Amino acid sequence: MTDNGILGIMGPVMVGPSSSHTAGALRLAKLAREVFGQQPARAKLSLHGSFAKTGRGHGTHLALVAGLLNLAVDDTSLPEAMTLAADAGLAVSFAEVDLGPDAHPNTVIFELAAHGRRTMQLTGASLGGGMVRLTEVNGFNVSLSGALETLVVAHADTPGIIARLCSVMALYDVNIAGMQVSRKDRGGEALTVLEFDVPCPEEVCRCISGSPQVQWAARVPRLAAAGGGGF
After folding, report:
1. How many CA atoms lie within 13 A of 161 on its CB side?
2. Mean of pLDDT values over 26-48
3. Which end of the chain is more exposed for a tag (fewer CB within 10 A), N or C?
4. How far apart are the C-alpha atoms of 140 and 136, rounded to whole Å?
5. Distance between CA atoms of 49 and 47, rounded to whole angstroms?
6. Residues 165-204, buried b or exposed e (16+ Cβ, 10 A)?
7. What are the tens digits of pLDDT across the range 114-151?
8. pTM of the model
9. Is there a contact between 6 and 73 (Cβ–Cβ < 8 Å)?
10. Helical H runs in 74-220?
11. What number of H helices and E strands is found in the chain?
């Protein structure tokens, strides 16, 4: 039986009553933190649908904060997430939002900020069984699950920029498993998501970040399996 088959029967190892509202919420926030590139100093979390209606009873609010603090889904300190956030200098606020009937019921909009950095807005959902997906980063459509090592690059939409990104991957012998490119306007801002079968070296991110066409780049490690360390 595959890992996904086992997970479908047993569910993820976690603290909390719900794989979607607790484990999934934590993993989604952890993924958002990785794309942001550091622990935020301020976070506004807007919850839609089921997350908004039943989130507090399922520990969703605590799980989201725990994910921003980079806790594991089976960390027994998860119930103390708000206290841990205050100790870490992370100010968190919550809101409810109606994104319409087409939005997944377990959707969160993250507005993350840190000192000296502009706010980053990310949207994502907990899909069930601890599985998650980010669908938007700063207004760019993405499909980011954390299943693979990933590099997210915000850059100018200029000729040759994708070729240069790929040449850096070739230079460091990193094979590209998947690529997503999104732009707002021709010649304006763009976002490229590169997925890999192997970890992306830190040198790759530094090399790409040094390009004048690149606004920022973030290495996103593969998320730990939704099932945790065992059953």
Report:
1. 24
2. 96
3. N
4. 5
5. 7
6. beebbeeeebeeeeebbbeeeeeebbbbbbbbeeebeeeb
7. 988 889 999 999 998 889 999 999 999 999 999 999 99
8. 0.87
9. no
10. 81-88, 161-171, 202-209
11. 7, 10
Q: CATH 3.30.1330.90: does it fit domain 16-144?
A: yes
Q: Give the H/E segment covering residue 61.
A: helix 60-68
d(CA 165, CA 160): 9
* Distances 122 to 82, 92, 125, 185, 215 between C-alpha atoms, Å: 21, 15, 10, 19, 17
Q: Which CATH architecture has domain 149-220?
A: 2-Layer Sandwich (3.30)
Q: How far apart are CA 122 and CA 118, in angstroms?
A: 13
Burial of 80 (0-12, 13-18, 19+ CB in 10 A): middle
- Same fold for the pair 16-144 and 149-220: no
What is the mean predicted confidence (pLDDT) over 25-44?
96
Confidence at residue 22, expressed as pLDDT on a 0 to 100 scale: 87
From edge to edge, which strands make up the β-sheet containing 91-96? 91-96, 42-47, 107-113, 120-128, 131-137, 140-144
CA–CA separation, 56 vs 45, rounded Å? 13
- The token pair at 222 is 């593969």
Q: Domain extents for the chain?
A: 16-144, 149-220
CB 130 within 8 A of CB 12: yes
